[in-house]
Amino acid sequence: MKLTAAILATITSWYLFQRLTAGNQYAEFKSNNNDTGFSLLDSIFETKPMQLRYFTAAEFGEWWPLMSTELLTKLDEFRHQLGVPVRISPASGALGRRMGMATSQHNVDLWGEVRAVDVMFEGVSLERGYQVAKEVGFSGIGAYPDWKPSKGMHLDVRQAPLALWSGVLESGKQVYKGITSAFA
């Protein structure tokens, strides 16, 4: 499985490089030759833009083609049920990360896709955010009351039993505890 993820990450990187560097030459080649050039990968990436109610591809930047469809679907439903705007955290690594064999759900190198997102919202408690995230079906939920510019959550679609935690500041350092510690 790890080899498959590494191969997929390599192919994906190559594909994105080709698409980004080829630009109009690629589109011209496709139209003149009635050929996709990268037919299998084109079908994967060109069908990725799904109908999301609240998010756009631009919000995910360079990570858009590598976003888990399950993650995107659940994130959109989370926003819908939460009833307030949800934005991607501006922190580096809030979406994908290149981390070698580290097991983070953000790690594209290991999973071949982005399976986690860090989000922020206002006007609703973290406890309510947790309840909605659980209802929507996220399998990894972390609550962070001290993130800046506003509180936030880590949401992921790991293939494991439900994982819950909080990251709270104690004496100026982030400490990991049970999720209810973030609701105080």
Description of the structure:
With 184 residues, the protein is an alpha+beta fold. It folds into 2 domains: 1-47; 52-183, Muramoyl-pentapeptide Carboxypeptidase, domain 2, CATH 3.30.1380. Helices cover 38% and strands 17% of the residues. It contains 5 helices and 6 strands; from the N terminus they run αααβαβαββββ. The protein has helices at residues 2-33, 39-46, 69-82, 108-111, 126-136, and strands at 86-88, 116-121, 140-144, 152-156, 163-170, 173-177. It has a 6-stranded mixed β-sheet with strand order 1-2-4-3-5-6, with helices on one face. A hairpin with a 2-residue loop joins strand 5 and strand 6. Helix 3 (69-82) crosses helix 5 (126-136). It is globular and about 40 Å long.
Strand content: 15-25%
Can you give the mean pLDDT?
A: 82
CATH architecture group name of the largest domain:
2-Layer Sandwich
Compute the gyration radius: what is it? 18 Å
The computed structural class is alpha+beta
Q: What strand line-up does the widest sheet have?
A: 1-2-4-3-5-6
Q: Could you give the count of β-strands?
A: 6
Query: Could you describe the largest sheet, including whether it forms a barrel?
Result: 6 strands, mixed
**Count of structural domains:** 2
Number of helical regions: 5
Overall, the morphology is globular
The H-and-E topology, N to C, reads as HHHEHEHEEEE
CATH topology label of the largest domain? Muramoyl-pentapeptide Carboxypeptidase, domain 2
CATH class of the largest domain: Alpha Beta
Distance N to C terminus: 40 Å
SSE layout:
Blueprint: H1 2-33, H2 39-46, H3 69-82, E1 86-88, H4 108-111, E2 116-121, H5 126-136, E3 140-144, E4 152-156, E5 163-170, E6 173-177
Parallel strand pairs: 3-5
Antiparallel strand pairs: 1-2, 2-4, 3-4, 5-6
